[in-house]
Write a structure and sequence with these properties.
Two copies of one chain form a homodimer. With 191 residues, chain A is of the alpha+beta class. Helix content of chain A is 53%, strand content 24%. Chains A and B meet through helix 3 and helix 5 of A and helix 3 and helix 5 of B.
């Protein structure tokens, strides 16, 4: 759980007492690859800190998977809109690889918000980060060419995500056809 | 300033002392219609609570204005990504009508975060609301037909926004051609 401790300390500098109190409320879980953790239509009861692994969120559009987010070691993930307002999720959360996650429930986090302003701060920072992430993705979807999108993706995303997420999932995340992505990858490896 | 007091009380229940302390830090400003408050490339130093008025954020793409947000009486607006990380804005903030706004600077809000957890909570709630707003818009852009988008817009947005924002600005916000919007509006008024 050292990864989580380090990340929280970077964000909100918890005291030893605060960390121990928080640690007791976390449940660590292991999931095999391709396991659905949150299913579209259910409520996201928890947020997950990834100790080790690779996960994605996606929804179905006309039977086709549209990937909306990838996260790996040291990052948080959930079906975030569902989590913050406790309404049915519009996205599925699934493991891509075998994953170990630390699970923080909505009830726990809400209680922590109430008793310790550092967790309010953490909540604010997570919300702001998620806002920036979705606004950045939306803007890039609307303004970049397919090649620019992929070059940006490999530059700015975690190496593990770039290397281990299947190509067709990256293509749907970037809003480009799998054949286009394949062509771009060939161009890049040649040039 | 009663509107702002009411909204803050709904969100975070400020005491009289907290409200008075907060109120002293706010600057109220009046702007004529079509005034640029934040210019693309500059840093958004403040967030604005609209006492009365109508504002929008937009960016330019190939010389064309793409509207990204509208807000009116009782709502907050800024070039939010720029505001939270204090980097150059990718969007302009402009008044559509003559507007009276209460201006809360980044410095003030950051200081309030530090001294009073209720403002951390407010910051979290604003960030979560903005996240939900952008994710909802993105999802609808990707999944709804032009007619569905407009029907959703008139159902879910503030009446003042629906009635007073120029049609071509609504069209660019919904990602549909002005002619298409005009056709949809005729269909609706006939049916």
């Amino acid at each position: 759980m050292n990864n989580l401790k380090k990340i929280l300390n970077n964000l909100v500098q918890l005291s030893a007492v605060e960390w121990n109190n928080f640690k007791e409320k976390i449940v660590t879980q292991e999931y095999k690859s391709n396991t659905t953790i949150i299913k579209e239509g259910n409520i996201a009861n928890s947020i997950y800190f990834i100790e080790k692994g690779l996960l994605r969120t996606y929804y179905l559009q006309n039977g086709k998977e549209i990937n909306t987010y990838f996260a790996c070691d040291g990052q948080f993930i959930t079906s975030y809109a569902s989590f913050i307002i406790q309404t049915p999720a519009l996205e599925n959360l699934e493991t891509i690889e075998n994953s170990i996650v630390h699970t923080i429930s909505f009830t726990t986090l809400t209680e922590l918000y109430r008793i310790d302003s550092k967790f309010e701060k953490l909540g604010r920072m997570l919300a702001e980060k998620n806002y920036l992430c979705v606004i950045d993705r939306t803007r890039k979807m609307q303004t970049l060419t397919a090649k620019q999108k992929y070059l940006d993706f490999i530059e700015t995303y975690h190496k593990k995500i770039v290397q281990s997420v299947p190509q067709h999932q990256i293509a749907s995340y970037l809003g480009i056809a799998p054949e286009t992505l394949s062509r771009i990858r060939k161009q890049i490896s040649i040039s």
